[in-house]
Amino acid sequence: MSESADSRSKTLNFNVGVLGHVDSGKTSLARALSSTASTAAFDKNPQSRERGITLDLGFSSFTVDLPDQLRDSGGQQQYDSLQFTLVDCPGHASLIRTIIGGAQIIDLMMLVVDVVKGVQTQTAECLLIGELTCQRMVVVLNKIDLLPPNKRQNAIEKMTKRMHKTLESTRFKDCPVIAVAAKPGGPEAPDTEEPQGVPELIQLLKKQSYLPQRDPGGDLLMAVDHCFSIRGQGTVMTGTILQGSLAINDTVEIPALKVTKKIKSVQMFRKPVLRAMQGDRIGVCVTQFDPKLLERGVVCTPGSLRTLYAAVISVRKIGYFKGSLATHAKFHITVGHETVMARVTFFGLPAVGASEPPSVTKSPASQTYPLEEHFTFDREYTYQDEYAIGLGEASSGSDPEQWALLEFERPVTCPSLCLVIGSKLDTDIHANACRLAFQGRLLQGFEDKNYAETALPRLHIYKSKQKEGQVERVTDDYTVIGRNLFKKETNLQLFVGLNVTLSTGESGVIEGGFGQSGKFKIRVQEGLRPETKQILSSTSKKKGKGGSKGGQASDEEPKTDSQPVSIHLHFKRYVFDPHKKMVQS
To answer: I need a surface site. Which of 23, 150, 338, 389 has the fewest CB within 10 A?
Structure first.
């Protein structure tokens, strides 16, 4: 690197998400990578000490010379060096939060697997999160020092094969697998033992790096992971820009505190800069506020984030989740940078030309739901008792065909169209079960606390209802009395004017109640057919005469098996209609 370039060197930041089951050695690996890189590659560089190890809050970084494939990009060299920022995700709930929060800016995923234990529950969950949020992955088999030396190579090859088999059906098929010992002897061992395989891992990461797509446009959204004050200067927030850009003198909003602040200075790679954009890891100094109020959170363009009490999302079940996805169940919903409990209502498109109830599930082959990406209030949807299986598989790329209404237990602040993941985080962490249940995108948010009254009536989700009763008797050629369709206490006025059909084919309209026991009067506009009258007169005679013998026998014998004439009522009821009206199409 020439001296003139060195004074104004441009560094490309490349974010690597470090994921893995608890105790797979993620933190040791991040530490080994940082220290190996800074001692090996940069002693000759005057800025090596400045760049050093910035291991704080799960973000460590190390810088390497720009790999050849990046030098050739676009025929000219935009950058002088490459910085890897390792986004370590400690603990599980925060793993989901961190990764989903940082999903837009993770360029490569490093899945750390304990070579002795192999794929564990959380490893599988990490894989899923990776599939939802990232295009590339490297698998690191850690702790190879625990394998007996004479069986080591064999065990590594066996586990490598097993990993490739696990990844076969994912987007990370054929991804590189490398074996290391980040901290030989375990966390308590003295630091005298050199890590094994780490220089090779650095070379692999360099080889896997590419020029990420970064977009400075759109509203600013920055994930803050640390906050502290500097006397006389202001409060510093460090974090990663998830979208948009910022510059000195911009005003930003801290939604959690409901305040706006002016940017006084910005630092990147420990050097002052005038501006920063998506993917950059920065420190931003703003006018003073108490840093204890914002340990973690988001900063954004004023007014760009919305605080939601409920939301409609597209939804797709995660194939590895073994539980049911039932309407009215509660799930942990990770949205934006928060995880909150919510009650879920599933709904879908009516089956084309079908009159069956919406809970009917079809096999994928006979599925008639048209694919529809965009949710709109202008169409009708069917209520589902649960997510309809057969529509979604983990990470399938097709458009969502089902939606869910999420009703949050407390309001959440998030950008629109952000990724949403539903999980059952209260499941035992040691149970061998995937806790990620569904994923989707936030399509419509409700900011009004009274959304149930103000917004939900616009959401036309209906239940198909079917009732069946019997004709009790004929009053005249155009009128019959029915029974067993309603309970005694039902308010029959709600049903007046609805159309019914008789099992004999005639159509009629409910005119009103008859007596006090839930019976009702039906007007048959076209009049009863002669054969219907015959059936009804014979059944009523049979009832009237009981088992009497005599001249009736021959007339009634063919009718001994005859069914009473039944009355069928079909209607729709909209789940969120405050008036609970019955509607017939």
So the answer is: 150
How far apart (Å, rounded) are the C-alpha atoms in residues 19 and 486? 59
pLDDT digits 0-9 by tens, 507-562: 999 999 998 888 999 999 999 999 999 888 876 665 555 444 444 434 333 443 45
Count of beta carbons in the 10 Å neighbourhood of residue 525: 10
Around Cβ 296, how many Cβ atoms within 10 Å?
18
- Residue of 464, 475, 528 lying closest to 502 (CA atoms): 528
Q: State how beta strands 108-114 and 11-20 pair.
A: parallel
For residue 414, give every residue at least 6 positions away whose Cβ sits within 8 Å of its Cβ, in sequence order, or none. Answer: 305, 306, 308, 335, 336, 337, 338, 442, 445
Tell me the fold of 462-535+563-583: Thrombin, subunit H (2.40.10)
Identify the top-confidence range among 156-170, 324-338, 432-446, 518-532.
518-532
- For residue 103 the two structure tokens come to 């999903």
Alpha carbons 59 and 413: distance in angstroms, whole number: 24
Could you list the beta-strand ranges (E) of 318-337: 330-335
Between CA 231 and CA 70 the distance in angstroms is 41
Q: 151: which residues sit within 8 A by CB, 6+ positions away?
A: none
* Residue pair 276/415 in contact by the 8 Å Cβ criterion: no
Name the residue with tokens 């993941």. Answer: 421
Whether the model clears a pTM of 0.90, i.e. scores above it, the answer is no
221-300: CATH topology is Elongation Factor Tu (Ef-tu); domain 3 (2.40.30)
What ranges do the domains of the chain cover?
11-208, 221-300, 307-350+377-388+400-459, 462-535+563-583
Q: Do domains 221-300 and 307-350+377-388+400-459 have the same CATH topology?
A: yes
DSSP type of residue 181: B
- Cα angle 335-340-342, degrees, rounded to a multiple of 5: 100
- CA 518 to mean position of chain CA atoms: 47
CB 109 within 8 A of CB 136: yes
63 within 8 A of 79, measured Cβ to Cβ: no
Cα torsion through 214, 220, 226, 228, rounded to 10: 130
CATH number at 307-350+377-388+400-459: 2.40.30.10
Cβ neighbours of residue 268 closer than 8 Å, sequence gap 6 or more: 13, 276, 280, 281, 282, 283
φ, ψ (nearest 5 deg) of residue 122: -70, -25
Q: Could you name the CATH architecture of 11-208?
A: 3-Layer(aba) Sandwich (3.40)
CA distance 344 to 375: 17
Count of all residues that appear for the chain in the document: 585
The mean pLDDT of 253-263, rounded to a whole number, is 91
DSSP secondary-structure letter at 179? E
Q: Tell me if 130 sits within 8 A of 102, measured CB to CB.
A: no
Instruction: State the average pLDDT for the chain.
Output: 79
Phi/psi of residue 124, nearest 5 degrees: -65, -40
